[in-house]
Design goal:
Length: about 280
C-alpha cells in the first residue's frame, strides 16, 4: 500500500506512519469559532505527537432542507481557512461540490475532499484531481453510501488514468442500511487498503441517521453521538490509517449535524485512546 506525503508539512499517511488526525468542525460558522477549535485541536495533537490537519467545510451543499444552514460560501469560507492555516501553521482539508471551485480550493486546501454523494461524478473527480496535483496536495475521496469497498477501484483508476499519479486517500463513512440508517463494515477497511490507497474513517458522518432528526421533523440528519468513539476505535483496530472527526464546544448548538459531532472538551481523551489503539495494531 502506498504511503502518501504532504512534503511541505512533513506529514505522511499509510501503514507504518503515525495516525493522521483530520479534525475540526462540520461547517464554518464564524471565524472566531474556527480559530478556537483549531487552536484546541492543534494543542492536543502536538502534545500527543499526532499529525494534525484542520477540517471545515465552507459550504454544505447536500442538505436535507432548503432552509438548512450551509456555511459562509466559497469566498468567505476560504478566507477563514487561509487565516486558520496562517495563524496556526496548519494544513487544511475541505470539500468542494462544483468543477469551477477546484482551482480556488486546491490553492488553499492541502487535502481536497470529494464528498461521498459526488464520488462517481467523473468530471468533478478529474478536475479536482488535476487541480490538487498541480497545487501539490492530496485528494481525499469519501466512499459513497451506495458503494461497496471494492467499487472504489473505479475512482482510483479514473484519477490514475487522468493524472498518471497515485495520490488518493479513501475514506470510509458508512453504507446505507435500510431507511434513515448507516452501518460500517469493518472488513471494508482492508478491502479498500488492498486497492493501494491509505484509508481513513469518518466516524462522525458514519453515525448519521439521514433525514431522521426529530428536532426538525425529518428536515435534517439525526445522529448517534455515542457511536463516534466506538466506530473510530474499531476502524483503527481494523487498520485505518487516519481518523476524520468533527467537534464543537457545544455540539447541540452546532448549526449543522450537531447530533453527530463531539464535545471539544473530550478531544484529548478520545485521541489519546485512538493513538494507543493505532500503536497496538501496527506491524512489529
Amino acid at each position: 500500500m502506498a504511503v502518501l506525503t504532504l512534503d511541505r508539512w512533513n506529514m505522511a499517511i499509510g501503514d507504518g506512519q503515525p495516525l493522521m488526525v483530520m479534525a475540526g468542525m462540520n461547517v464554518l460558522e464564524d471565524e472566531g469559532l474556527a480559530l478556537e477549535i483549531a487552536a484546541h485541536l492543534k494543542g492536543v495533537c502536538a502534545e500527543l505527537g499526532l499529525p494534525y490537519v484542520f477540517k471545515a467545510s465552507f459550504d454544505k451543499a447536500n442538505r436535507s432542507s432548503i432552509h438548512s444552514y450551509r456555511g459562509p460560501g466559497l469566498e468567505k469560507g476560504l478566507a477563514i481557512l487561509e487565516k486558520v492555516k496562517a495563524q496556526f501553521d496548519l494544513p487544511i482539508i475541505t470539500d468542494l461540490h462544483e468543477i469551477d471551485q477546484a482551482e480556488a480550493v486546491a490553492a488553499v486546501s492541502d487535502i481536497v475532499q470529494i464528498p461521498a454523494f459526488l464520488c462517481r461524478q467523473t468530471d468533478l473527480v478529474i478536475a479536482t484531481a488535476r487541480a490538487t496535483l498541480a497545487a501539490g496536495g492530496l485528494l481525499h475521496v469519501k466512499k459513497g453510501q451506495f458503494l461497496a469497498p471494492w467499487d472504489c477501484k473505479n475512482i482510483l483508476d479514473k484519477v490514475r488514468e487522468a493524472t498518471g499519479r497515485d495520490f488518493i486517500i479513501l475514506c470510509e463513512r458508512g453504507v446505507s442500511f435500510g431507511y434513515n440508517n448507516l452501518v460500517v463494515d469493518m472488513l471494508g477497511i482492508q478491502e479498500m487498503k488492498d486497492l493501494g490507497a491509505p484509508v481513513t474513517i469518518d466516524a462522525t458522518h458514519a453515525v448519521q441517521l439521514p433525514g431522521a432528526d426529530p428536532r426538525s421533523n425529518g428536515a435534517s440528519a439525526g445522529g448517534r453521538r455515542f457511536g463516534v468513539p466506538l466506530l473510530a476505535k474499531s476502524a483503527i483496530a481494523a487498520g485505518a490509517n487516519g481518523v476524520f472527526l468533527e467537534f464543537h464546544p457545544e455540539p447541540d448548538k452546532a448549526l449543522c449535524d450537531g447530533p453527530s459531532c463531539l464535545p471539544l472538551a473530550g478531544a484529548k481523551e478520545l485521541l489519546t485512546t485512538l493513538k494507543a489503539v493505532h500503536a497496538a495494531v501496527q506491524p512489529a
